[in-house]
């Protein structure tokens, strides 16, 4: 599988890219910091023990660069079978409430930036007759909740978009995989108190890779979050207003 | 709260980031997987923040012709071994656990079952990248800033934050270990057996029953191993092993004199026939304790300490006997008592091993633990030996000074790189008198 990967240098993206490299998938890394991406590319090459991993700059806050970045990936890989997006921005709700500039960045990166990147990826994959688009959204988008009002809103929009995309284009060969991680212990969540059922990036990566291979449209990781969110969605508003979850 | 493997906690907090180099800016201490038993990875100042290296785990290069690799300091030994064993390479040194980082392996200058032959990890390191106390990022190695290198290898992370490690892996003929175990009747024969086995076998060590007395003092099981040749081993790679874990902290009475006596008698008594030979999974051979997750919870709510000392060859064969006699007299029950012969002193100025016999024992923390460690330390000083800082939480500064003739040199180099004493740990406050 030839994969263009946005966000492979950190957290769950790093874990997933390593699994892909280990089984021989061709990878091309996209991200903001090309120096750091190059280190990740070397890591994947050593782990795979063969092949080379290319890199190109791509920032979710700069949609004008999406086309060139994906074109570079397609050229280097000699085609494109899948696009994976694990990149995103996160900040705790309190900080987003205080800092409007940061809030704007998070909303743009996690919603409009991510969606526009997917649009570019969709066109390229469809032009080749289809492929897989795997995007990391979040359980934060499942319901309006106190700790993730803004971040959750962006992720809700992203999940919504991915569902629509799947309905519209699956028949044409584009498989959309929307990943909804629960709390996973990564640098993004460092400093937050992990709830029970917090996951590890490696476990999430295994689940996501299976979902990519099968073309599962929605995947919760760790899987228990499917049931946790099912309960949360059923709670009456009066209860949601009282609890801090 | 933040704690070492011995589970004696101290107020503090870890911060993690893939960008470990940035994370170490202005930090007093960094840590890896927290497997040092005592206070070496705990903050000097109660409540302070310690930079964790565990997310910095990228491999940066590997040359299959030479086995030389370079990686970020947070890469674990388990990840390294699992990645390279199928390609015919293994870590040159296998310490007691795989759940340690490369940075920790350098900071503790770890040794393993092959110390008599291959020395410590530091002997296989070619380059280190450090963030020094003044914030500069520097490279050092045996042929570059060699003073800094020698002070860093075994220097308990006190000369700077270890960011990257370049070292050489060993080529192995197969993925399996051919191991022999043999029952030995007493301590003198044990030491002879270790020295004898060391002539032909790269990996040797022993477990001894340190509650047996008199003629049976120091009876135990001697283990020796080598990599199997291709013809002796199955071509299949050993599968990673799933492991059970101790789910919660067990009550303090689980490890008592009685239970330890029972365990030791069973372990020794059921080893039949006297000599066994078989192929072993390398993880099972090198890391038997890793088979049970959180085994440190077994020692109860007060935690435990490991006492590890080396008794030099110069002290004669009787030194180990005198040590065990004192230990049994003081009532230091230990389920795990590991004995190993050490080879030459390493390049690291504070590196633990020197030619002699190393003894390591786990001691559940009780009211008399400080007195027990003091008494053992006094014997070790009299014999000309020393203790391993990675295991230590109770050694007094005057005792450590008496054990370590190289200390002044190490302190001089450290002061040169860190005149203000910025980089420090709870252990360096306790033993080297750093300001908290």
List key phrases describing it.
heterodimer, A: about 240 residues, alpha/beta, Rossmann fold, 7-stranded parallel β-sheet, 9 helices, about 50% helix, about 15% strand, B: about 425 residues, alpha+beta, Alpha-Beta Plaits, 8-stranded antiparallel β-sheet, 5-stranded antiparallel β-sheet, 13 helices, 20 strands, globular
How would you describe this protein?
- The complex is a heterodimer of chains A (245) and B (436).
- Chain A has 245 residues and is an alpha/beta fold.
- Chain A has helices at 11-22, 34-48, 66-77, 93-98, 100-127, 149-169, 201-214, 224-234, 237-242; strands at residues 2-6, 26-31, 54-57, 82-85, 131-136, 174-181, 218-221.
- In chain A, strands 3-2-1-4-5-6-7 form a seven-stranded parallel sheet, sandwiched between helices.
- In chain A, helix 1 runs parallel beside helix 2.
- The longest helix of chain A has 28 residues, at 100-127.
- Chain A is globular and about 55 Å long.
- Chain A starts with a strand and ends with a helix.
- In chain A, 41% of the residues are buried.
- Helix content of chain B is 26%, strand content 23%.
- At the A-B interface, helix 2 of A face strand 6 of B.
